[in-house]
Design a protein that fits this description.
single chain; 64 residues
C-alpha cells in the first residue's frame, strides 16, 4: 500500500501523528507503509479520511 506513505507525506504528518489519529501504534503505520502488514478493512475509511483521500488512493503505487 505505497499510497499510505505518499499521502501521509503529502499531508505533512508523521507516522506517530497518523497512528494517534487512528488509534494504532506507530509500528503499525510503519508496517503498512513497508508492505509488512495491511490495515484491517474497518480502518480503511478512517485512514482515508485522515489522509484526505479515497480508499482507492491508498492502493495507488505512488512515488513520494
Amino acid at each position: 500500500m505505497n499510497g499510505i506513505e505518499f499521502r501521509r507525506k503529502k499531508e505533512n504528518i508523521t507516522q506517530s501523528q497518523l497512528a494517534e489519529r487512528l488509534g494504532v501504534s506507530q509500528a503499525n503505520i510503519s508496517q503498512w507503509e513497508n508492505g509488512e502488514a495491511f490495515p484491517r478493512a474497518d480502518k480503511l475509511p478512517a485512514l482515508a479520511e485522515a489522509l484526505n483521500c479515497t480508499i482507492d488512493d491508498l492502493f495507488e503505487n505512488n512515488s513520494a
